[in-house]
Amino acid sequence: MKHLKAFIVLALIVVANSVSAQSTFEKWPAIKEFHEVMSQTFHPAEEGNLAPIKARSEEMMNKAAMLLKSDIPAEFRTNAILASAERLQLKSKALHKLVTSNASDAAILKSITDLHDTFHEIVGLCSDAKK
Questions:
Q1: Structure-derived torsion over alpha carbons of residues 94, 98, 100, 104, reported in degrees to the nearest 10
Q2: Which of 15, 22, 25, 114 is the most buried (most CB within 10 A)?
Q3: Phi-psi region of 48 (alpha: psi -120 to 50; beta: other; left: phi over 0)
């Protein structure tokens, strides 16, 4: 019974975060576009397949740049979100540089993981901004 309660609480948290992310994506299309590339490259990288990120690192970098240039909804135009979006852009450039310089797979995996964490930081900040 104790495990069932813990599972239910965890499931509710996951659903709430998913709904929050969907709402953010609807309001800020550029972050949704970035997420599409991130999800299609990060998850294979987690499994050891770096081919998608090696093929799409420039696209990822461009999506991160477009994110900052996009029409950011007023509720998300906070100093914290803007600073995180700038870090996302810088980290995506660094990742692309690693890919184009034929860096080690370990370095590329570390870089995309860091970029992924920064993306989730932005989504979390957007969720906080709506409260």
A1: -170
A2: 25
A3: left
